[in-house]
Specification:
With 436 residues, this protein is an alpha/beta fold. The protein is 33% helix and 20% strand. The chain starts with a strand and ends with a helix.
Length: 436
């Protein structure tokens, strides 16, 4: 018998990313697109391996988005089987009742979870009357789906206990005609994604070998397949900018031949908004104008393949060492240049630059270990000016001007007179620059 299903995970409905209404709607549209595939392909069921929602406390519109799409599947006779992810969990004050529980009570979907008592795992069949159960059968009993929710750091231990429970059920399964077994877990495999820790190792899944034919994972947003046995589709939409390079993530279209039993799983890319993430080095640019000019050329190269109307999210990190005062770097100028090249939905310029180091306590002045307040002040001004290539050639003169300017201000001199003083000094020093 042939059975087809979709394996998806990490939909994160309700994610108001960057406080953008468009990004909020993007997550709903991604789910709509996958539901449309399920309806068009007439799959036998949909398996959601956790994190239907982005947060525990959802708003009314997010609930509406979920109910509407789940109703389309239910009305087409396509059951939606789901497990609880870490983002779906109920608050303790809510007595363990989550929004997934609510949707199960409305018959919108089937929430699977085993009973755990005295450290043992027990899988009971799905009971429509009590809206609960640890497994659900498809096509009579030809294909059985088990569900194991998020257990965090205890996942490895729970896998061992689950394997023991499934081993006890094996003879019963065979008597009932079960030929293919799938289990959903909301966890990942350690070591596959940099910076994601606390997950079970690949070896930790081995107790399930021979007991299940397909392990459907969620939680980690990068797609992967291991040993034609462990599958993770990744997130439908981009939950964080770091995920931009995982272009193929989306969902698995799986076809099972229960008489084998065998299966084939094809990773399908989900439609989602494009993210462009780049790094721009600021080293060597003498002034803000020169930096902006080169940044303009950089955008022309990096954004030239963005099609009209695509409206991507653009995230550019500035790195390196500035040759001028960091206060002169206006990120708004750079954002405007990005806007001119590709009209993004959102643009982020992240300033991770460094300025030249300066420690006024080191060294000596005129052979002395300690400097007077005035001398130290001049030195601080001079070293600050030396960092900025626009003033470096006349740093000593500019430092004296800054010291005088400060004194005029402290004296409470007339603001117009202070402005006039600064204008005359600027004219004098710029004339000196032009003749030198």
């Amino acid at each position: 018998m042939k059975i087809r299903f979709l394996h998806i995970a990490d939909l994160h409905l309700g994610n108001h990313q960057y406080q953008s209404d468009d990004r909020y709607n993007d997550f709903a549209r991604a789910f709509q697109a996958v539901v449309a595939v399920a309806l068009t392909e007439h799959v036998d069921f949909v398996a959601i391996a956790g994190d239907l929602f982005h947060k525990r406390a959802i708003d009314a519109l997010t609930l509406y988005h979920a109910q509407t799409e789940l109703a389309h599947l239910r009305d087409a006779g396509i059951p939606t089987l789901i497990i609880e992810g870490n983002h779906d969990r109920a608050f303790y004050r809510d007595a363990g009742i989550s929004w997934l529980s609510f949707l199960t009570w409305t018959d919108a979907m089937i929430l699977l979870a085993p009973d755990v008592s005295d450290g043992e795992v027990h899988f009971a069949p799905w009971d429509r009357q009590r809206h609960g159960g640890g497994f659900y059968d498809i096509a009579g009993s030809a294909l059985r789906v088990y569900g194991l929710p998020w257990y965090g750091a205890s996942t490895g231990v729970m896998i061992e206990r689950t394997a023991a429970a499934l081993a006890k059920l094996r003879m019963e399964e065979e008597a009932q005609g079960v030929k293919y077994r799938l289990i959903m877990l909301h966890t990942g495999v350690d070591g596959l994604v940099t910076g994601v820790h606390g997950l079970p190792s690949r070896q930790a899944f081995e107790p399930l070998r021979g007991l299940v034919d397909y392990i459907a994972l969620g939680h980690v947003h990068m797609p992967y397949m291991l040993d034609d046995w462990i599958y993770n589709p990744g997130s439908l939409e981009t939950v964080s900018a770091e995920e931009w390079e995982w272009q193929d993530r989306g969902y698995f279209m799986v076809e099972v031949e229960t008489d084998g039993p065998t299966h084939s799983a094809k990773l399908m890319a989900a439609p989602r908004r494009r993210f462009v993430r780049e790094r721009f080095r600021v080293d060597g640019y003498a002034n803000p104008e020169e930096l902006a000019s080169h940044f303009d050329s950089f955008c022309a190269r990096k954004l030239r393949d963005v099609s009209a109307g695509e409206l991507p999210v653009v995230d550019i990190t500035l790195s390196g060492t500035l040759a001028f005062d960091p206060g002169a770097l206006d990120k708004r100028v750079l954002e405007d240049l990005v806007q001119r090249h590709c009209a993004p939905l959102l643009v982020f310029i992240r300033n991770h630059t460094q300025s030249l180091e300066f420690d006024p306590a080191t060294g000596d002045l005129d052979g002395r270990d300690r400097a007077s307040r005035q001398e130290l002040e001049l030195r601080v001004f001079r070293d600050l000016l030396l960092r900025d290539s626009r003033y470096a050639t006349n740093a000593d003169d500019w430092a004296r001007v800054m010291a005088e300017l400060k004194q005029h201000t402290l004296n409470g001199d007339d603001p117009a007179a202070i402005v006039d003083f600064l204008a005359r000094q600027q004219s004098r020093l710029r004339s000196a620059d032009s003749t030198s």
